[in-house]
Amino acid sequence: PKEVQKIKSWVNSGAAELVQQTKAPYPKEAYEHWSLKPLEQPGLPELNDAGARWVRHPLDAFVYQKMFDHGLSPSPEADRVTLIRRIYFDLIGLPPSAKAIQSFVHSKNPHAYELLIDRLLASEAYGERWARHWLDVVHYADTHGYDKDKPRPNAWPYRDYVIRSFNADKPYSRFVEEQLAGDVLYPHSMDGITATGFIAAGPWDFIGHAEVSEDKLDGKVARHLDRDDMVAVTMNTFASTTVQCARCHHHKFDPVRMEDYYSLQSVFSALDRADRTFDADASVSRKRRQWMSSMDKIQEELDELTARVREAAGPSLPELESSIKELEGSKKSKPDAYGYHSAIAQSQDETKWVQVDLGTPKDIRKLVLRASDDDFNGIGAGFGFPLRFKIEASNDPAFINASALLVDTTPEDVPNPKRVPLSFEINPPVMFRFVRVSATRLAIRSKDYIFSLAELEIKNSGGNNVALGKTVSSKDSIEASPRWAKANLVDGKFVSDEKVTAGAKTLAQLVAEKNALLKKATQPEWVQRKQILLEEKEMLQSSLDQLPPPSKVYAGTVHQGSGAFRGTGHMGGKPRTIHVLSRGDVDKPGKTVNPGVIPVIYGQETRFELPMDHDEGERRVALARWILQKKHPLTWRSIVNRIWQYHFGAGICDSPNDFGLMGSEPTHPELLDWLAVTFRDGGQSFKQLHRMILTSATYRQTSNANLEKASIDSGNRYLWRMNRRRLEAEAVRDSVLSLAGVLDRKMGGPAFMDFVIEKPEHSPHYEYRLHDPMDPGSHRRSIYRFIVRSQQQPFMTTLDCADPSLMVGRRNETLTPSQSLALLNNPFMVAMAKEWGRKLEKSSLDLPGQIQTAIEAATGKKPDAVELKRWVDYAKTHGLANTCRWMLNMNAFLFVD
C-alpha cells in the first residue's frame, strides 16, 4: 500500500522530476540503433560471376548480394515499352505518347535509355510530379483545417516554389535552408521568402488564433499545438524522427527528452502564420529595396532636424508634452460598441445615409456629430468620417416631401474632427420627427470607401438628447455586433477628448501651444531643408507607388497585429518564453528552455550557442545548419530513402517518417548508407540520384511474378523483381485529361477549384457535386488543384489521395470496389470518356483504327487481333464513349509494371 501511495503521489504531482530532469534518461546503447549509427561510406560487396555480369551500377551490387544471401536471383530486364511507360510515370506522372513509345522502341542509339531519362528530367513536368510527393510529406493544403476550414488564398506560392526547386535541381542543402530560414539567409530572393511557406503548410486553428486572445486557455492551447506542428513537420520531413511523442513525456522508445522537444518548440516560438509580401520580379525587388533605403536615410535626417528643434524649444516642450500625455491617458476608454458603419463602397462619391426616428416631431435646437474610433489600417480617431455631408430633417421617413436642410458641408471638404465633437446650433429651433445625415463624399478606408459615425446627438432647447435609444435606419450598414450596429449611433457611447487640465486647458489648446512653441524654435534654413527632404520623400513614395504591388505567400513569419489569417504576433515579434509542460498541459509550466535540438549523437551538445540579443531568425538558421551537418546520421538517410521509395513503391526503410525503434528496419542498410553518402558528398542533386536509380539493373527488372521466388520473399523486400504499382490519384486524373485531349499544361499560379464554395464568410461548404467537370479552368494538372482539408475531393480520396491534415510519408495503396465504381461512374470520368470518344471520332481512322489508337494511348501496347475484335464489337453496340469508359478501368491503364 505504501508503494501504491507513492506512485499515486508521483502521478498526482505531474511526475515533476521527469519534467525537470536534465540528465539524459537513455543509455549509450540507445545510439546503437541503425539510424543513429555514424554515417560512413560502406565498401561494395564482392560478387560472384553472375552478379558481376548483372550489375550496371554500384548500387546493384548491394541489391544482388542481399538477393544471393536469401537464395534469390534477379528477374530479366523489362521490355522497352514497359520501361518507357514506367519512366514516364515515375518522372513526370503522365503517359508517353504512341509516337514517343515507337521512337524509343525502335531507336538504334545505344544511349537511348539514358537520353530518355535526361529528356524527362529536363521537362518542367518533372517538377510538377515530384513536388506532389514533397507536398504529401509536409501536409500542404489550401485551407486551414479545423472547424472553420477557411481558404488560404496565398498558399500556392509555396507550392510553386517546390516545383521550381525540383526543376532547377536545387542542391538539397539550399532546399532545406530556404524552407527553414530563407527569409534570413536569402532575404532578397523570391525563393527565400516563398520557401518559408513550409513552416505554415500544416493545419491552423482559425478560432484559436484569430478569435481567442493568447492569454486565454484556448489561445494558449492553439499556439502550443501550432508550434507542435512546426516541430513535427520539420523533424519528420528532414530527419524522419517522431519528436512529437515527447510532448507529454520522455520519448518511450527513442532518445528524446521532453526538454529536447520543448527546445525545438523554442526555435519557432516567435513565429505565427501569416501572409507575407515578396516581389516575384527581381528587378522590382531591387528597386523597392533601393528606394526604401533612400526613404530611411531621408527619415533619419528629418529625425535629426526634429531633434534640433526640440533642443531649441527648451524645457517648456517636455512640460507641455507631459500635460498632453496626461490628458490622453485619461481619455474615456473605447466602448465595445463603436457606432454605425455603412457597407463598403468602391466610389468615393457614392452617397450613404443614416437617419434617426424620434417617434414624434421633436424640438431640435442643436446637433452633435461624434466620429468613430477604429484601428483598422492604422486610421484610429475619425475613422470613416465623411469629407462632405449634409444633415436634413423631415416628417417624411423617405425624405421625399417637405424637409429642412439643417447643415450643409457639400461644397467643400471639411477637416476630420478626430475625437473633437462637431456641434451645430439650429437657430431658430425646428420641429421634425426624422433627422438624416447624408455623406456625399466618403472616407477612404484602405482601397475602398465608407461612412461611419460613433454618435448622433439631437438636443432640444432644454439641452436633452432626444435621440438617445431611438430607432435608426440607413441606406445600408454592416451589422457586426457589438462593434458595429445601427443602434450604436444613439447608444450614448463614444470616445471623447473633452477632459481639461487643472489650468482649464483642453487637449486641443495644449496641442496648439506646443505647435506654436515648435514653430518659434525652428530656424528658417531648417524649414527649407525639411521642405526639400519632404519633397524628395514624396517623389520616392510616388516611385514606390508606381511599382507593381507585392505578391503574398502564406508562410511562417514574425509580425504584429491580429485578425483573420494573421495569427496574433507576440510582444513585437520577440520569441515567447517556452516551458517544459507537465504532461503537455499549458496550465502546468515547468522549467524554461533555450532553443536547441535532440541529441542524435551520444553526448552531443543540444542547445544552440546564440548571443543574448540574437534575432529570432538565428534560431532557425541554427536548426537548419544542425540538420545539414555532414555527420548528421538521419538527414541524408532520410531523403535518399524517400526518393528510393517513390521509384520502387517502398523505401529501403518502409517507415519513411520514423527511423526510430517503432519504425521499420532497413532491408538494405549498406545500400542506404552508400546512397546517403554519395548524395551528400556528390552535389546533393536530386536529378543525379534519379539517374543513378533509373539506370540501375535493379530498376530495369520486369515486374513478372515467380512462385518459387515469392515463396522466399512474397513482399519483394529484396527486390528480385520490380514492384507493380497502381497509379496515384493525381496520375490517374492527369492521364485521363491527357487522353481526352483537354489537359491544360499551364504552370503555376492560384489553384483551380473543382467545387462550388458556399457560405465562405463563416464555415465554408465545399460542394464538389455542383462543379462542372467540363469547366476548362479545372483541366490543369492535379498539382494545381485547390486542396481542402476537411471536405476532401471524394473521387480523389477514393483513389487514396493523401490526407492533407496528415504528414503522409507513404500513401495507402488499396484495391476496393468503390474505386471501380468511381472510375466508371464519377461525372468527371464520364465527361472525359465522352470527350476522348469525340476526339477519336474526329480522326480519319475507321472504328478498329480508333480502338487500336485508344488502347495504345492508354496502355502503351498494341492489342492482338482477338482483343481488338472484342473491343470493336463492344463499341459497335454501346458506342465509342462507353468503350472509352471501360478502357479507363483497365488494369493495364491503372497500373505501372
Descriptive notes:
The chain is an alpha+beta fold. It folds into 5 domains: 120 residues, no CATH class; 200 residues, no CATH class; 73 residues, no CATH class; 151 residues, Galactose-binding domain-like (Jelly Rolls), CATH 2.60.120; 168 residues, no CATH class. The protein is built from 32 helices and 20 strands. Helix 15 runs antiparallel to helix 18. About 3% of the residues have low confidence.
Mean of residue pLDDT values:
90
Radius of gyration: 35 Å
What portion of the residues fall into strands of 2 or more residues? Answer: 5-15%
How many structural units, i.e. domains?
5
Shape: globular
Query: How does the helix and strand content classify structurally?
Result: alpha+beta
- Low-confidence residue ranges: 14-22, 497-504, 561-571
Query: Helical stretch count?
Result: 32
Strands, total number = 20
Alpha-carbon distance between the two ends: 65 Å
Put the structure in a nutshell.
This protein has 897 residues and is α+β, with helices and mostly antiparallel strands. It has 32 helices and 20 strands. Helix 29 crosses helix 30 and helix 30 crosses helix 31.
